[in-house]
Amino acid sequence: MSTPVPGTEPAPILEALGITKSYNGVPALRNVDFSVRAGEVHALLGENGAGKSTLIKILSGVTLPDGGKLRLGGHSLRLRTPLDALSSGIATVHQELSLVPHLSAAQNMWLGHEPGRRLGLINFRSVRQAAAEICQRYGVSLNLDAWIGDLPLAEQQVVEILKALAWNPQVLILDEPTSALTAQYADWLLGLLRSLAQAGVAIVFISHRLAEVMEVADRITVLKDGSLIGSVLRSEVHEGDLVRMMVGRELKDIFPAKADPRQIDSAPVILRAVGLRSGRALRDVSFELRRGEIMGIAGLEGQGQHELMLALFGTLPLDSGDLFLAGDQIAVHNPRQAIRHKIALVPVDRRTEGLVMPLSVQQNLSLPTLRERSRWGLVQGEKEKHDMVGMASNLAIRARGLGAPVRTLSGGNQQKVVLGKWLLLHPSVLLLDDPTRGVDVETRRELYHRIRSLAEQGTAVLVRSTDTMELVGLCDSVLVMYEGAVVTRLTGEQITEANIVASAVGAFSKGMALNAQ
Amino acid sequence: MEEGYPAKQGSASSTIRFPVEVWPYLAAVLLVGVGAIVSSGFASPSHLLLILGLASFLGLVAVGQTLVILLGGIDLSVSSTVTLAGVMSAAIAAGANGRTLDAVAAALLAGVAIGLVNGLGVGMLEIPPLVMTLGTTSVVQGLALIYTNGAPKGSASPLLSTVATGSLAGVVPYTLLLWAVVAALTIILLHRSVLGRWIYAVGHAPKAAYMSGVNVGLVQALAYTISGFMAALAGVLLTGYTRTSYLTIGDPYQLGSIAAVVVGGTSILGGFGSYVGTIAGAVIVTIIQSLLPVLSIPEAGRQIVSGLIILVLLLLYGRERAS
After folding, report:
1. Which pLDDT belongs to residue A516?
2. Quick check: helix, strand or coil at residue A419?
3. Torsion angle, CA of A132/A96/A501/A485, rounded to 10 degrees?
4. Backbone angles phi and psi of A168, in degrees to 5
5. Alpha carbon distance B252, A508 (integer Å)
6. Mean pLDDT, range A143-155, rounded to an integer
7. Which pLDDT does position A274 carry in this prediction?
């Protein structure tokens, strides 16, 4: 461990002093000081829109600050491009993946500084070899030759991390690296960060998962609304202190009260799935979802949870199996049919699937239900505006106005728009596919309460999440999936993080045993 | 949830972005000024109305092209559709007023059919628009050749010619009036209708639109069908304007209509733009085409110039988007 001893703290390696930055007159950072020392893991916390990503962009040469200066190893530093940062030894893993889909993992890892490059020609063998060495050094095994676009998201994120490490940085910056990782890879990464720190690398780490931050960080800096709230040693704080610094609220207040189990058990079944199968992704999935129930879908990454969501919304064809909505058999072959049955999906990728980013808040909100607000094919402007203003204020969507392009909103507010557009449908079944990914604590709390009150009004909710704590805090029941099938159903007091992980991993070990025979 | 929502700001039609719409109009005015310098009388009201009347044909073809390009597609087959509709309306009418309706209806139906084929190919079979419409271009050219046996017959009915060449009170060309009506309908379609909203959504993010329940294939099929219809309408009027028809009558409208759309500020990548800009774009392209002969630039030179103008504009627009 490299927890600094007061009085003997090494000098910071990378310092940002008095950084200010505004976008179109809106301040994103106000006079922020930030510094990281060699050999420390420094977590950067804050809600979405607090300025974390802006600070990271300035430290990595993507964005120029309006004011303030950077120092590296005591010397003043000026970063004009990301390459300036990389050649100064500052490598960054950004939140958005920067991989080229039709290159292999190996080629992506060394993109731009391929080893063994001569006369502008790439020696693919030495690139492949260098990539294999990196994998070995950091203890991962990956398919290095497949197109990166064909690898699971978690492995793409691992490649993104290895790509930064290929620069052999003295400062490594990671912006929410674990949000796309499976539990195993997240463990791998946290271990890796510790050993890198021990080897003297300075690490800046952004995460929304407080447990992770408490596990791996030496020092924690909290930003709020573009200002520095404080910089503390991990050993001196508890999670609750951090949440209070970020949002001024206790962690236990984040989740709403659950439903009365007896009431759920006596409620009518809204959605019944019998023997759903689709290729290798879904093999025999059956469940009953009741009116007012919030049911979680858990499991290791890639066990068919995401595909189940897609199948129920009609974007993944089923080979066999039956779906019943309130007792009637239904066919769902595309989203239009799903929507007709009042089944809604908040998709995993809000940027490409959930929202039309350049269109306004109002236009996004009303898109699925536009025809309800039209006559003779023409949109009834006043009615639309009235309804959307109502929804926007109901969800407390923070935007410059209903006409503001949705891309100008923070991630949490964008997710509120995605939820809002489906609330206007008055769904009987709401599917949520990892709904709080990259969403700040305060907005999470708002979303959880909104989802619960929707359930109380009779909507049946199915939520897939990569955040086990979220399922524990929110759900009335949890299905654990393994290899495309439901292996465990947990209810009431059984829903604990330990039980979920045990079921997922237990199924995993059983599967391994079967394969070994 | 006590944060109030600022309801008074913003509007639904934020896709109309002020500067993008204004530039082509300024450019059109500038070009008229240039025209007045090189040729006296160019800026006279009667000549300007003549130019606008000519621009109507292009403006009509560019209606469909605007919808299709907003969707991120392209319709290369408008030129051959103009030609086929042109030769059909001349051949069927054969100079007789009594067959005007037959001729017009048949030509428009042919246009709708071509557009529908494009729309089904792009929307349902998911063939890339460039390939699909290039293919139909070739097929329709072949059909026009078979239909005319290489030598277009007949001529427009006098009635059609009167509509295409006449003017209200001897001042405002009928074609210009028709264009004004169609333009108004197009703008309403794009900015006030459900289909228009869907077009912008699909143009920006087809996947998000699909996941929101928009029938993406249907939207595309409708846009290409409208494009086929508008191209055929222009072809019919063009035959009325020239009285006879010929097999290359539609050729200038392929690049011309794409130029009008792009000059008008619509992104060739889809999503951004509107027909308001295309109107100015059609006028600009028509002015350039009528100025080049005045400057005694031969046909070959005109083609080179219009090609270069499009490339330069694409370059400029691409820069603007990237920044």
Report:
1. 41
2. helix
3. -90
4. 50, 60
5. 66
6. 85
7. 95
Cβ of A378 within 8 Å of Cβ of B194? The answer is yes
**What CA–CA distances, in Å, run from B122 to A437, B45, B134, B224, B270?**
35, 43, 12, 9, 15
- For residue B26, give the nearest of B281, B310, B295, B311 by alpha carbon: B281
Q: Which of residues 290-349 of A touch B (CB under 8 A)?
A: 313, 315, 334-336, 338-339, 345, 347
pLDDT tens, residue by residue, A305-321: 999 999 999 999 999 99
Neighbours of A150 (CB within 10 A): 13
Centroid of chain to Cα A421 = 20
pLDDT at A183: 77
ipTM confidence score: 0.83
SS3 A461: strand
Chain B contact set for A358 (CB, 8 A): 15, 204, 271-272
- Write A367-370 long-range contacts (CB < 8 A, 24+): A367/A421, A367/B197, A367/B201, A367/B209, A367/B212, A367/B213, A367/B214, A368/A339, A368/A344, A368/A421, A368/A422, A368/A424, A368/A425, A368/B212, A368/B213, A369/A421, A369/A424, A369/A425, A370/B194, A370/B197, A370/B198
The values of phi and psi at residue A275, to 5°, are 60, 45
**A20 three-state secondary structure:** strand
What is the model's pLDDT at position B319?
Answer: 54
Locate A408 and state its tokens.
Answer: 């100008």
- Which 418-447 residues of chain A touch chain B by CB within 8 A? 421, 446
Task: Give the span between the Cα atoms of A372 and A339, in whole angstroms.
Answer: 13
Pull the structure tokens for residue A224: 């709020």
